[in-house]
Amino acid sequence: MGNKTEETLLQQHRIDEFEIERRKALFGFGATDAAALLQARSCVLPALDAVVEAFYRQQTANEEIALIIGDSETMRRLHLAQRQYIDDLFSGIYDENYVNNRLRIGVVHKRIGVAPKYYLSAVGTLRRLSREQSIRTSPMQRMPRRQGQRSQSSSSSTPHWCSTPTSEA
Ligand code: HEM
């Protein structure tokens, strides 16, 4: 039997470029979605610190999660890791390197013993906070509303909060 330490996680899971493309197709994730994520990047990045702050404030309000995280040094490492995680989400590149990295993050949590219920609820929290904080930081949101302009709904599928404001010509 081969030694696992000689294989990447991608190799261990038999995931190659072709399999990644198949999975993207399975989820209906295409080039347009990747481009939309990359476009949203400029709106999300200014909100990054606020998102990460709010995320861990909320996470550590749960006693069991706070116990797993355990100490302030781990917390500091987590802040940096979470920043990078969100940044990578909006890179527009979802290739073998990205998938291998995500698999590694999964393995880390499995080893620590983070229950799926905590991980999945954290994903929901992260998604909500990213949207809320990005809207708050967005230049569109800070612009005074023009007469007759309807208020922006954060539940819309179009990220209009993320569009570049047009000049008031
Ligand atoms: C949205 C869900 C989550 C994301 C995106 C996330 C992201 C990450 C990342 C990127 C790392 C660094 C992995 C590495 O070392 O390469 C990490 C580590 C870790 N995560 Fe999470 N995490 C999530 C949920 C959770 C939850 C719910 C807990 C606790 C119940 C948790 C506890 C930890 C701990 C203790 C570490 C190790 C930190 C260290 O010692 O350096 N994570 N996480």
Structure characterization notes:
This protein has 169 residues and is mostly helical. It has a single domain (11-136), classed as Orthogonal Bundle (Globin-like), CATH 1.10.490.10. Helix content is 64%, strand content 0%. The protein contains 9 helices and no strands. The protein has helices spanning 9-12, 17-26, 31-44, 48-60, 63-69, 72-89, 96-112, 116-137, 139-142. Helix 4 (48-60) crosses helix 6 and helix 4 packs antiparallel against helix 8 (116-137). The longest helix has 22 residues, at 116-137. It is flat, with a radius of gyration of 19 Å. The termini are far apart. The relative contact order is 0.13. The structure holds protoporphyrin IX containing FE.
Describe this structure in a few short sentences:
The chain has 169 residues and is mostly helical. The chain is 64% helix and 0% strand.
